[in-house]
Amino acid sequence: MEITVKRTDSPKKKPDWSKLGFGKIFTDHMFECDYDPERGWHDARIVPFHNISLSPACMVFHYAQEMFEGLKAYRTEKGDILLFRPDKNIERMNNTNERMCIPKVDPDFALEAIKTVVKVDSDWVPSLPGTSLYIRPFIIATDEFLGVHPSKTYKFVIILSPSGSYYAAGINPVKIAVEDEYVRAVRGGTGFAKVGGNYAASLIGQQKAEENGYAQVLWLDGIYHKYIDEVGAMNVFFKINGEIITPKLEGSILPGVTRRSAIELLRSEGYTVTERRISIDEVSEAHDAGKLEEMFGTGTAAVVSPVGELYWGNKKMTINNFEIGQVSAMLYEKLTSIQWGKAEDKFGWTVKI
Ligand SMILES: *Cc1c(COP(=O)(O)O)cnc(C)c1O
C-alpha cells in the first residue's frame, strides 16, 4: 500500500533538546490509516500533526476497544537513525489485535509506516546522550454505536515524541511497593496485550504507591495474590544466590521486547536465566537470608531500572545497599550500546532507517 505524504506549511519551533522530559512534545507529522470491511486498511498517509474529530458515540470511548505500542528511534554518533527490534513490536501488535478483535496489520506495511513517519520527522530525532524519539502506534475502534460488539471500522495512528534521557542524573535505583489488594490482570484476561484498559485498572494502585513515596507498583498475580507479575510498565528480574529469575509468560504479563532482549543477552554472556513463577514470599525469604542480590525492571523507557527498595506489607527490603547491581549495570551498558549503535550488533537487532 502506498503511503502519501503531505508536509506541514508551518513547522513547529524545535524544543530545548536538553529539557525534553517524556511524552509532552509532539513532532510536525503523524501517520494515519483507516479500516472498513470493504476496503480493509486503506488511505495510508503522513499528514501534519492534528486533532482527530470523532463522534462522541465512537466505540473506543465507551468500551475501550483499542491497542497501543511503544518503541524508540535512536540517533547514532554518525547521524544514522536506528530502530530496535521493531519486528517484535509489530508481532506483539498483532497478538494484541487478535485478543481485542481488531483487524491485523500486515507486518511489512506496519514497519514501512513507522519508517516513513520517522523519516519525514527525522529532524526531530534528538542527538544528545540518552535522548531518543519515542514512537507511539495505536489503533482505536471508530464505529458510531453504543452496542457491545467489535467495531467494523478503525483508525491506526502513529505519533512521535522526542524524549529526554531517563537517567539525566545517572542511573538511580527506584523504590517499589508491592500491591496486595488490587490486581492488574489475570490469566485469560488482557495482561499480555498492550491495551489502555490494563493501565486504567492499574492507576489506583499506582496512586496508592505514590502517596506512600514509592515510584511504582509491583503487581502480584490475580488469583493467589502471591506470584510476581511485573512492575508498572516494566518486566521484572531477580538475582537470587547467583540465579537470574524472571516470571514466565503465562498470559497476565506483558511480553516486553526489553525483557526478551535481556534474557537473550544474559544467556549469551553465560548467565543462567530461569523463566518461572516466583512468589513474593520467596523474594522476602531470600532477602532475609542475604541471598537477594539484585532486582531490576526492564522496558523501552528506562531500558534497565535497578530496584533499591521493595516495600511489602510492613516490611521494607533494601536491595544491594540501594546501589546498582553488577548485572543491572552490565545489561544497561550492553543494551544501550547496541541501541545507539556504539557497539557491534551481533544479534542483528537494529534496523537502520
Ligand atoms: C510496554 C510494557 C512493558 C515493557 O515492554 P517493552 O517492550 O520492553 O517496552 C512492560 N509491562 C507493561 C505493562 C507494558 O505495557
Can you summarize this structure?
The protein is of the alpha+beta class and 353 residues long.
Please report the first level of CATH classification, the CATH class of the largest domain: Alpha Beta
CATH fold call of the largest domain: D-amino Acid Aminotransferase, Chain A, domain 2
Helix count, per DSSP?
Answer: 7
Shape: globular
| Number of β-strand runs | 18
From the helix content, strand content and strand pairing, which structural class follows?
alpha+beta
Report the helical percentage: 10-25%
Strand content is 25-35%
Averaged pLDDT: 96
What is the H-and-E element order?
EEEHEEEHHEEEHEEEEHEHEEEHE
Task: Give me the CATH architecture of the largest domain, please.
Answer: Alpha-Beta Barrel
In CATH terms, the superfamily of the largest domain is D-amino Acid Aminotransferase, subunit A, domain 2
For the sheet with most strands, the description reads: 9 strands, mixed
Bound molecules: pyridoxal-5'-phosphate
Question: What is the total number of structural domains?
Answer: 2
What separation lies between the terminal Cα atoms?
A: 19 Å
Radius of gyration: 21 Å
Low-confidence stretches: none
Descriptive account of the structure:
The chain is an alpha+beta fold. The chain has two domains: 4-163, Aminotransferase class 4, branched-chain amino acid transferase, N-terminal domain (D-amino Acid Aminotransferase, Chain A, domain 1); 174-339, D-amino Acid Aminotransferase, Chain A, domain 2 (Alpha-Beta Barrel), CATH 3.20.10.10. 24% of the residues lie in helices and 29% in strands. The protein contains seven helices and 18 strands. It has helices at residues 59-63, 86-99, 107-120, 196-211, 257-268, 280-288, 326-339; strands at 4-5, 29-36, 40-48, 66-68, 71-75, 81-84, 132-141, 154-163, 174-179, 216-220, 228-231, 235-240, 243-246, 273-275, 292-299, 303-312, 315-318, 350-352. Strands 1, 2, 3, 4, 5, 6, 7, 8 and 18 form a nine-stranded mixed sheet that branches. Strands 9, 10, 11, 12, 13, 14, 15, 16 and 17 form a nine-stranded mixed sheet that branches. A hairpin with a 2-residue loop joins strand 16 (303-312) and strand 17 (315-318). The radius of gyration is 21 Å and the shape is globular. The structure holds pyridoxal-5'-phosphate. The site of pyridoxal-5'-phosphate has 14 residues, from helix 5 and strand 15. Pyridoxal-5'-phosphate (PLP) is lined by residues 70, 194, 230, 233-235, 254, 256-259, 298-300.
